[in-house]
Amino acid sequence: MEYSKHYHVIVIGGGHAGTEAALASARQGVATLLITHSIETLGQMSCNPAIGGIGKSHLVKEVDALGGAMAKAVDLAGIQFRVLNASKGPAVRATRAQADRVLYKAAIRQILEQQENLDLFQQGVDDLLIESDEIRGVITQMGLVFRAPKVVLTTGTFLGGKIHIGLENSAGGRAGDPPSIALATTLRQLPLRVDRLKTGTPPRIDARSVNFSAMQVQKGDTPQPVMSYLGQKSDHPQQVNCFITATNERCHDVIRSGLDRSPMYTGVIEGTGPRYCPSIEDKVMRFADKTSHQIFVEPEGLTTNELYPNGISTSLPFDIQVDMVRQIKGFEKAHITRPGYAIEYDFFDPRDLQYSLETRSIKGLYFAGQINGTTGYEEAAAQGLLAGLNAARAASGKDYWCPRRDQAYLGVLVDDLITLGTNEPYRMFTSRAEYRLTLREDNADLRLTEIGREMGLVDEHRWRFFNEKREKIELELDRLRNRWVRPRTAEAAKVDLLLEKPITREYSLADLLARPHVDYVALCQAVDDGDAGLSEEEGLDQQVTQQVEIQLKYQGYINRQELEIDHLKRQENTVLPGNFDYQQMQGLSNELKQKLIVARPENIGRASRIPGMTPAAISLLLVYLRKFKRPDRKAS
Amino acid sequence: MPHIDNDTICAIATPPGRSGVGIVRVSGPLAGSIARKILGLDPTHRYAHYSDFMGADGEVLDQGIALFFRQPKSFTGEDVLELQGHGNSHVLASLRDRIISLGARLARPGEFSERAFLNNKIDLVQAEAIADLIDSSSQQAVRSALRTLRGHFSRQISLVREKLIATRVNIEAAIDFSDEDIDLISNTRIGHSLADILKELEKIFVGAQQGAILKQGMNVVLAGKPNAGKSSLLNALSGIDSAIVTPVPGTTRDVLTEQITLDGLPLNIVDTAGLRDSTNIVEREGVKRAKLAIDQADQILLIVDKLTHTEDGVSADSVEKLLGSLGLISEESAVNSPLLNRTTLIFNKTDLVNDSKIGLDSVDCGGVEVTVIHISAKTGSGVELVRDHLKCCAGYNPGTEDVFVARKRHLVALEISRELVKSAIRNMVAGSPLELPAEDLRLAQKELGVITGEYTSDDLLGEIFSSFCVGK
Hints:
The complex is a heterodimer. By secondary structure, chain A is an alpha+beta fold. Chain B has an eight-stranded mixed beta sheet with strand order 8-9-10-7-11-12-14-13, with helices on both faces. A six-stranded mixed beta sheet of chain B has the order 3-4-5-2-1-6, with helices on one face.
């Protein structure tokens, strides 16, 4: 049976990628359908109950700057907020929130249900309608046909999902949910490279069986940080503590005794797991000289007793899990509510994608999230937003958009994936971003909101807030540049105390603020500009002062980075046509020719990031590109 | 379409060596302002100015003709400045350095032609030729660079690069995994390793500077037992084309070096025999210097007297033995000594041996192909081959890049890298946020990558994962 309503964009999957994809598409006024096997699990956090963290919060803020849901939802669901790397500089500073799973799901569900142009439908998808290498729609389990010219696939770990606990294994997309076997079979027939990855999760523990007094308390930050640019402390529910404990040698002995029944160490699992998120058995084996590994004990919510012991992800047999956990301080009498497990799943080589996240071989088919070999809610959400945006743009006859590496972590993420591929679940780190000093948490809106508005992603409320902020920043910078302090005056004496040495000539406040260790509030108080300056209140003013201070202090570094970015931009703007013939290029090694033919880079910038590429090869490319572009013209 | 680089490039356009006129060419948006600063006048489009070429403090570096072409009516299609001065290599080098200090950078191989082509200044049919030029001159630059890199220099660079990466791994791990209980080294120790890196970079810089500026030219060491014919070969080489033979005056060390030129290619010839002949007390010092000369040599000509060479053929073993017996390498040096790559075997006195062949040959020394040339320094037969061989080794080809330009580029990269490490140290001392020294060091590593001629693709994360137990 064919469903009567025709959609422009269909999103398959209701996780973090799927929900952002559906929202981004619908926000552009395009008729969108989100199909999920269960409406109850929309916005489900399958793994740890936290959002943000180093490199990841940058993505969340970018999604927020483009009108996405994740930051707003976590402000409504976060039960502990912390800023990591606070002392290491504004570019690597990162907000992290523990989330109440139930509240988070509810927040996402509400945003979805309030979104215009978006329909939800509950049913597993078994097949895709493809005609002459172009997507036409999807077919559900019960044979229902939904037609659409664009389909976004965000199937997470459900494709061919296989769950391992000890030597036992079963088919599953996540504990308690069936995998998508039929769809996996369909997809494996497409001309896309497919491989297996693995990830894992720790056993969950009943808080009533835990002795918290034996553990170290970890409190949230005061004042409470917020995730969304529009967020406020008052959005947050009740705040709770996390706890820290650690493994010990007895616990390691138990782990070692179970290795003969470990699916990892007996070769049952073929997929590659992430190096930065190893199972506890991996940590014990690979770093044998470490006698203890830290565990963060995170509450799963306000209305549940379940705890998430972050740091002991495992696929050892259940009896070993129980024994191992009970060796840990505070967990001596722990009751496990759900066993830990490893899950293997299909992912598609992201090098078969374009910047739009559309597959190269099937027109109109977009991939986002773990299906592309990434891990993490934030990475999934960012890709989802991009895929949904581009699917809707394509459906409306518009060109795709993807930020450059100097514009957003989202740009770094997509460029890394489609240029380098990945052989482990890809996670964001700040060290992946070469323009790190430019891509800060605090300026994601200044980098992206304007373009988001142009593309129809940003609503009126956010746009007004943004404009007010931008204006205030300019005004305040202006004021600081034109407010002078003369030496040997009363106010200079107070400034001298701040600087720990007297000023010898006239300085503007901007000059003074540019110095390291000079604080905005302290300076404004010293020159008695308490009223002229901005308040310390959270929200707009706080964002403005922070921005002003960073811009002034980092000017030298930012200027230097901008020179680098200028070069990048020229490279990115030099487009390599899809039908460019690399074979005919003289003087280029066969190895590099092959790499270029396989990668089909869109522009010179991306070509230069292909491993093994040299400056001389790029020069050659430019020469042949010029020849390609004017085949008949003679020189003037 | 504007091409990728819109910066200003410069290069010495005349072949290295001594000639009447030397030309330094500048192309790019800064050409005009550079002209004003060096000439002290506003140059007129397509007009020949006779002028002083001034240094940073207004001192006169040289005098000559300055030509200025305003874009697009120039060879490259950009603003072009051409300074025609005297052909002395030192003068040209200081003029070039002055231009670089005014904001230009050293051109890549074939880059003037590349820009001309990209700005539609060269006919399309020449595209292949330009491509060939870029290809061959960059290959040559790579060869040149490799030759420099093969020795001491390369070991030092890779060592300092490793140290830099090790330090970056610690800093980046402290940033990306700050909420994990990994054993990071303290900021004090990071400061120490940075100081260490800076010291290494200074050392390499000074060493490379000596190689590249003080001794413009290919360093050739003549090695061999007394009476093998080293001096005869030197005379035979310098006699050709009535090359200029000048003993370079100066320090004791330099007195043993002679500079000759072959078709404009400057050669610094070190006669190790002279070093070895030093008597008793200074004997040891002499051997030490000979070893140093060998270490810095671009080419080692190992001269063997055919009369006294008793073995039938040449093998890796016999070459090593020869080098060893001359005290040039230590006894325990294995076959495949890196010296072999730079060694040419010269069999001299073919005129005194019957059935002797003349000409070029090669022998496989444990995987390294060593060139063998049979000559008679006395009659002059085969000397031409030695001459061609040396030019070929230098990658010498008038008009394209030679080894010394490659070295100059290394020097610039080293200098930038050194400044960045200094900045990182200042940041650590001042207690700046860790992301600032991290940025300095990222760029420092990128600059070192310039030396190896590849885009750096560092796998810092991989290093972090293998050094630390991270992950929750």
